[in-house]
Amino acid sequence: MSKDLVFLKLGGSLITEKTKTSVSRTDVIARLAKEIAAALKATPALHLVLGHGSGSFGHVPAKKYSTRSGVRTEAEWGGFIEVWQQAQSLNRIVMDALNLAGVPVIAFPPSASVMAKNGKLHSWDLSPVKSALEANLVPVVYGDVVFDTELGGTILSTEDLFVYLAQHLNPARILLAGDEGGVYEDYIAKTNVIKEITPSNFPAASPGEAAGADVTGGMAGKVKTMVDLVQLIPSIQVNIFSGLEGGNIQRALYGEKMGTLIVNR
Questions:
Q1: How far apart are CA 146 and CA 113, in angstroms?
Q2: What are the CA-CA distances from residue 147 to residues 7, 62, 69, 115, 212 (Å)?
Q3: Which residue has the higher pLDDT, 138 or 202?
Q4: CA 156 – CA 54 distance, rounded (Å)
Q5: pLDDT score of 62 more than 70
């Protein structure tokens, strides 16, 4: 679409209390929304696709019912609906904050438009997403349940969605904002952030797993997905950083590199 197109994910660890079921960080979400609004106002050429994780909302019932592994029984379909309700509930909180901050957002729930096959995103009509971008709106996607031609149902993470979108929209950068300063060499002590990860030094980098329930792979899964993506589309740069520090989202949208950079070198 444009060299000014950026994907930004607000991680579940950033916008929810991951160790407390269905508790959002409303003050953090409000601040992030204001930073996004300020960045868009200051850089009119910037086009943005927003995504967010499910954190303590969707991951808890998803783990209980093993929804990502497939949905067949009546009880599992009940879990499927519960995950959907939780994901939608958090999305509403995020959308309300973005609207209040003046960001022209419109949500694209994956459960309504995405089909998977054996746990992988198979088809998605992106015409509405492209039309939203052309109208200078901000599409919002999020980790959600989807129907699956082989598994019945499954869950796709925001990173899964970003990978598919990247192949069709070609963003310049993907920004993954969480509650950590980046990917750590020493995850327990958290003293040394890996400045750069490339296909050649991965998997020497060994990111730790996320606290709380996380059925979509934690930090290790995110890094692996993004390393694969930059090999597929070498022009993309991925930045993993903390959104908890005030101003970081805004600076990242302006192009400042912080935390861990994933590139194909």
A1: 8
A2: 24, 14, 12, 6, 26
A3: 138
A4: 11
A5: yes
Reduced 3-state DSSP string for 207-242: CCCCCCCCCCCHHHHHHHHHHHHHHHCCCCEEEEEE
For the domain that residue 15 is a member of, what is the CATH number? 3.40.1160.10
- Given a contact cutoff of 8 angstroms between Cβ atoms, the answer to whether 242 and 181 are in contact is yes
d(CA 41, CA 215): 36
Query: For residue 142, what are the β-bridge partners?
Result: 52
108 pLDDT band, cuts 50/70/90, is very high
Residue 180 sits in which domain range?
5-262
Output 214 or 76, whichever has higher pLDDT.
76
Total structural domains in the chain? Answer: 1
What CA–CA distance (Å, rounded) separates 249 from 39?
Answer: 9
- For 176-202, what is the mean pLDDT? 87
Question: Is 116 in contact with 156 (CB distance < 8 Å)?
Answer: yes
Q: How many beta carbons lie within 10 A of that of residue 48, not counting itself?
A: 25
- In whole angstroms, what is the distance from residue 160 CA to residue 147 CA? 14
Cite the DSSP H helix spans in the chain: 12-15, 26-42, 55-65, 74-101, 110-113, 127-134, 158-169, 218-232, 248-254
